[in-house]
Specification:
heterodimer; A: mainly beta; 4-stranded antiparallel sheet; 0% helix; B: 113 residues; mainly beta
Chain lengths: 117, 113
């Protein structure tokens, strides 16, 4: 079974600074997807960024980028120019590639990010 | 932009009562899921549903739980006899196909007293 580990329960960053959230995972599969989801106080799960394991290039979405190290099974999220609206719980997540759409998403325990004005 | 919707946003019920949580997935999506998140804990998979049947379910999804797609738009999760430990946020998600991202609804916060 796949597992996702987030070793930082809480992080803080000054507004406009950069912060990196860590995530490691364990799998025996070679093809899979990795995600970062954001959960603000409203508790809705919002997709931040997605990475396909077969792609060597790290995904980026505006101020958000990942450092995907497949051999090390590491998938960190970098938030640049942090904004107050970035304050939320961030979940790292894993999904098998597979041919069907029924694959479940496995979540880490989350990192609570505080943005300091 | 299309989104997954869930109703109600909050539900309070007495232990032993039946509850039905409703979800409207994104219209062209074919795969549907329920997850739950007990307060302060991580999100856990409950069940996946495709072609009008369960594709996979977790050990949490016991005989007290059932899912249904009663019409072309709704996807429901029923808990037959709620327990205190069923108190959680329940998220519905959907995806168009096998390689697509799962999009989550805003959740239903269930409180069992």
């Amino acid at each position: 079974a796949q597992t996702v580990t987030q070793s930082q329960p809480e992080m803080s960053v000054q507004e406009a600074e950069t912060v990196t959230l860590s995530c490691t995972y364990d799998t025996s599969e070679s093809d899979y997807y990795l995600f970062w989801y954001k959960q603000p106080p409203s508790r809705q799960m919002i997709l931040v960024i997605r990475q396909e394991a077969y792609k060597q290039q790290n995904a980026t979405e505006n101020r958000f980028s990942v450092n995907f190290q497949k051999a090390a099974k590491s998938f960190s999220l970098k938030i640049s120019d942090s904004q107050l609206g970035d304050a939320a719980m961030y979940f790292c997540a894993y999904r098998s590639f597979g041919s069907g759409g029924y694959q479940k998403v496995t979540f880490g325990t989350g990192t609570k990010l505080q943005v300091i004005p | 932009e299309p989104e997954v919707t869930q109703t109600p946003s909050h539900q309070v019920t007495q232990m032993g009562q039946e509850v039905i949580l409703r979800c409207v997935p994104i219209s062209n999506h074919l795969y549907f899921y329920w997850y739950r998140q007990i307060l302060g804990q991580k999100v856990e998979f409950l069940v996946s549903f495709y072609n009008n049947e369960i594709s996979e379910k977790s050990e949490i999804f016991d005989d007290q739980f059932s899912v249904e797609r009663p019409d072309g738009s709704n996807f429901t999760l029923k808990i037959r006899s709620t327990k205190l430990e069923d108190s959680a946020m329940y998220f519905c998600a959907s995806t168009a196909g096998g390689s697509e991202t799962q999009y989550f609804g805003p959740g239903t916060r269930l409180l069992v007293l």
